[in-house]
Please model this.
Amino acid sequence: MRGRDWAYLVWLVVCSLFLAAFEVLYLPLRFDGYLLPMLWGGFPFPITAVVALLTVPMFVRRAGQLSPSLAIAGAPLAAWLLIVLVSAFSGPGGDIVLIPDWRALLLLGGGSLAGAVALGGVIGRAARR
Model:
């Protein structure tokens, strides 16, 4: 890989880190009248799980275009998982950022499973060549 490819990989990993933090912080969105309009009496709206479902595989495929090795193609997925899993543990004040309910499972399952499928596709295409 050339220097420009390494810079692009770092860019993909940093974007993955920021998106993971964004997805965890906005996971508790609900239709309660504060950020979203008052519809359905405060029903949860985990749109960030859909964002993870779409962006994590995209980052993995882009990294796989640089190199089909597991370490390089899986770097955005590993960075995303690191942020999501670290946010599940309590901090110094005892606060937990990742909410402990079905939305967290939806976020973790959507992002990690879709990323793993994309990573398997990258490795499978490389093995076929």
In short: The chain is about 65% helix and 0% strand. The chain has a mean pLDDT of 88. The helical segments are 3-25, 47-66, 70-73, 75-86, 102-128. The longest helix spans residues 102-128.
